[in-house]
Write a structure and sequence with these properties.
Blueprint lengths: L3 H8 L3 H23 L2 H20 L3 H12 L4 H8 L3 H22 L1
Helix pairs in contact: 1-2, 2-3, 4-6, 5-6
Length: 112
Amino acid sequence: MIDIQLIEECRGGNFNNFRKLVELSSPFAYSVAFRMLGDEDQAKDIVQETSKIIRILTERLSPKQKTVFILSDIEEMSNDEVSEITGIGKSAVKANLHYARKSISEMVEKYL
């Protein structure tokens, strides 16, 4: 699991730590991409491109939505864990995650 302090600093807007957070998640993403594509170079490229896209999209979310989205969908934490880390109630975590996913989905649809 990712260091809680690193997540808190990201939550505070420290984008250098966001990069670290993405880097810590990259081995898993690379593993999945490599299994799907069967090519090391393509897997590396797709992980790098995806990381950039995620950063761009999450920057457009509200701070709460960004935090909840990263913890829930990127770090795969439960709603209870996200609530405990952020101090946001569980129902607010669910609502923020819903709106974050909806916003990202709408942004992606514009580019397709």
